[in-house]
Amino acid sequence: MIRTSIVNVVATAALGQKLDLEELEKYPQILHSAQTYGGRVAYFRSRCFKGEVSIFSSGKMISVGAKSEAEAFRA
Question: What's the rounded Cα separation, in Å, for the pair 62 and 56?
Fold first, then answer.
């Protein structure tokens, strides 16, 4: 018998607009460095979420590390 379980949910989203990632730096949950990946990506981390959300200057986002679809949606 094979047992399966969900251990990591990857989700994507698109805001439909470009973002100024340097402006997001004023929020303590946002990690952004102009030297990292040419300044094109920031990361959102929160104690209430086990994963991380990558936020791209294009307005697209990728959430990794969620344990369920609902948790990915909240992130």
Answer: 9
Does the domain at residues 9-74 carry the CATH identifier 3.30.310.10? yes
CA atoms 10, 38, 22, 14: torsion sign: negative
pTM as predicted: 0.80
Query: Which pLDDT tens digit goes with each residue over 16-75?
Result: 999 999 888 888 888 888 787 778 899 988 877 778 899 999 999 999 988 888 888 877
Q: Which residues contact 57 (CB under 8 A, 6 or more apart)?
A: 18, 19, 20, 21, 39, 40, 41
